[in-house]
Design a protein that fits this description.
8 helices; five-stranded mixed sheet; 313 residues; Pseudouridine synthase; 22% helix
């Protein structure tokens, strides 16, 4: 195992199917010798694709990655139903599949675009009275679940091959793709399950390439080659409003103090804050009066800011 050290960065892992998000996280942590790691939004073991891994101080920003939109490509098998909505469950039933043209299927997909409600599946990580829903489901139990608001930006048919549809969807956080697949199948007059699921991107990283575990294994002992896969801490929030602070303001912010700055007409918002030389300090909340309150601060910048303040004195 490599020596543990501090890496403050984001890695966009191309998680392979068959591996849990936590197992993938632990492998990345081990390969890079990171002291601390977390992921921004889990993927089912049977799913592949983008899993943002936050290393070091980047773990403080992992929660912000859960709020963005996501894009998935999946294959929906029509005419059969499973207990989980995918290949992990047991087969329950078979139904005839009505004949549809690609245009008719696309029209059905279009009916899902916009805001709607979705009932979370029993095979999910949501909690009910302290228990994960999937734990209850494995015991044969089912409980009432409240519908949740979701939003679908676009939904496209990519291919039709017999009873299999290849689909691509851009959607809000909290959208369960297995449930979406079942709902599409029902709208087509049959049942269905997903037999392949891949997350193409998470918002703010749509244009960024992913790295596989095999590639990381090869690069673990080559820091120069590894550098291209290490994104800066603020990479996922570059669309947030930015506020730059001078040395004294940065020192006060890192001490946990709120700052009163001119409102500038922007209004209340979550912001990213920077200190001298454009150093990223973390995220804060700005109210309508311009008062900035720290939310998540990058502690590794504290000594650098303090040193700069002493030097400038």
């Amino acid at each position: 195992m490599p020596e543990l050290h501090s890496i403050d960065a984001i890695v966009l892992l191309d998680k392979p199917a068959g591996l849990s998000s936590n197992s993938a996280l632990q492998q990345v942590k081990r390969l890079l010798g990171a002291r601390k790691a977390g992921h921004g939004g889990s993927l089912d073991p049977l799913a592949s694709g983008m899993l943002p891994i936050c290393l070091g101080e980047a773990t403080k920003l992992a929660g912000t990655m859960l709020t963005g939109r996501k894009c998935y490509q999946f294959r929906l098998h029509l005419g059969e139903e499973t207990t989980t909505g995918d290949l992990e469950g047991e087969f329950l039933a078979r139904q005839a599949v009505p004949s549809h043209t690609p245009q008719e299927v696309q029209a059905v997909l279009a009916s899902f675009v916009g805001r709607g409600k979705q009932v979370p599946p029993m095979h999910s990580a949501l909690r009910h009275q302290g228990k994960r829903l999937y734990e209850l489901a494995r015991r044969g139990l089912e409980v009432d679940r409240k519908p949740r608001l979701i939003e679908i930006d676009r939904f496209d048919l990519l291919a039709m091959e017999g009873h299999r549809l290849t689909l691509q969807v851009q959607c809000s956080k909290g959208t369960y793709i297995r449930t979406l697949g079942q709902d599409v199948a029902a709208a087509l007059g049959t049942c269905g399950y997903i037999d392949d699921l891949r997350r193409l991107w998470v918002e703010s990283f749509a244009a960024d390439p992913m790295v596989t575990l095999d590639e990381l294994q090869k690069l673990a002992d080559n820091p120069d080659g590894l550098e291209r896969w290490l994104l800066p801490l603020d990479r996922g929030i570059e669309n947030w409003p930015r506020v730059d602070l001078d040395t004294e303001q940065a020192r006060r912010m890192l001490d946990g103090q709120a700052l009163d700055l001119p409102a500038g007409g922007e209004g209340e918002a979550a912001i990213r804050i920077y200190g001298p030389a454009g150093r990223f300090l973390g995220i804060a909340q700005r109210d309508a009066q311009g008062r900035i309150t720290p939310r998540r601060l990058i502690s590794s910048t504290r000594d650098r800011i303090a040193t700069r303040a002493v030097t400038s004195a």
